[in-house]
Amino acid sequence: MTETSKTPAADIAANFADIRARIAAAAEKWERSATDVELIAVSKRQSEDHLKAALGAGQTVFGENRVQEAQGKWPALKAAHRDIVLHLIGPLQSNKAKDAVALFDVIETVDRLKIAKALATEMLAANRQLPVYIQINTGKEDQKAGIFPEDADKFIQDCRDLGLNVIGLMCIPPVEEQPAPHFALLNKIAARNNLERLSMGMSADFETAVQFGATSVRVGTALFGTRDKT
Ligand SMILES: *Cc1c(COP(=O)(O)O)cnc(C)c1O
After folding, report:
1. Beta-carbon count within 10 A of 151 CB
2. Given its phi and psi angles, is residue 174 left (phi above 0), alpha (psi -120 to 50 degrees) or beta?
3. Which of 20, 32, 98, 171 has its C-alpha lying 20 to 30 A from 121's C-alpha?
4. Cα(161) to centroid of ligand 1, in Å?
5. Ligand 1: which atom is nearest the Cα of residue 223?
6. pLDDT at residue number 74
7. What span, in angstroms and rounded, lies between the C-alpha atoms of 77 and 171?
8. 125 C-alpha to center of ligand 1: Å?
9. What are the backbone dihedrals phi and psi of residue 135, each rounded to the nearest 5 degrees, phi first?
10. What's the pTM?
11. Are the C-beta atoms of 34 and 24 separated by less than 8 Å?
């Protein structure tokens, strides 16, 4: 075994079929429409072969957590496949805001005023008004990005006042806790702020996220296999 993981394209196609079926089954179980839950394929640290296998399996929505890494992988693929929708799902530094606005189609990780302002400025300059999500630190973890739940309402309003097109909330629950209460909390904060989109749920817990109203699930390893080391 080498450190670089390599999943054959046929396996990746089968994984996409399996995950889509599980999303549909979870949606049906909780009396939701499967078409209301979008699958974001998290392609960070996956090879170009893996990305092409996913595109071959009909996937168009992808998530990356680093601007610089995404800049090396996606411009050519986006030029060749105009329907690709790229989500930034990792922390953003303000000096990368311009690059992020140029490359990504959705920014899911607005988590402080400085970033919100930088994004508003760069979107205006580029005449590219991207939809954004606010990241909520539902577990109030020190090491994790995101707005604390009690500060969310004000921050959402501040972002709206800056002219950002806030469409939803995202969260990453603490690894050692049951995710359900975190998903329920995100749903509650979104509802009282009239936000329709909820990005929550990963490989281990996306079905629970569907139960609690996820409109996007962000799945990586269950689709592609283990990631390359950085
Ligand atoms: C890596 C990552 C994922 C996907 O995680 P898996 O466990 O591989 O499905 C989802 N969301 C974010 C923010 C990530 O960084």
Report:
1. 13
2. beta
3. 171
4. 30
5. 9
6. 97
7. 28
8. 31
9. -85, 125
10. 0.96
11. yes
